Amino acid sequence: MSEYTPPFQITNEILAYVSSISEKISKNWQPIILKQNHILEEIIVRIKDI
């Protein structure tokens, strides 16, 4: 089997872009995720009380 060579190369610059995007996404989504977790916790508590 021959060795595969991808048509691109991951550089430090690309990794920096990916890291920056990930940070921005996590900051924007964190309040939404926390709210959803709170709602799920409330549902679980109510189901246990049934």
Tally of individual helices: 1
Order of helices and strands: H
- Overall radius of gyration: 21 Å
**Strand tally, please?**
0
Structural class: mainly alpha
**Helicity level:** over 70%
The N- and C-terminal alpha carbons lie at a distance of 60 Å
The average pLDDT score comes to: 84
Percent of residues in beta strands? under 5%
Q: Stretches where pLDDT falls below 50 for ≥5 residues?
A: none
Q: What is the overall shape? A: elongated
**Biggest beta sheet attributes:** none
Q: Would you give an account of this structure?
A:
By secondary structure, this protein is an all-alpha fold. 76% of the residues lie in helices and 0% in strands. The chain has one helix at 12-49. The protein is elongated, with a radius of gyration of 21 Å. It starts with 11 loop residues before the first helix and ends with a helix.
Helix and strand arrangement:
Elements: H1 12-49
Keywords:
50 residues; mainly alpha; elongated
Q: Nutshell version of this structure?
A:
The protein has 50 residues and is mainly alpha-helical. The chain contains one helix and no strands. The protein is elongated, with a radius of gyration of 21 Å.
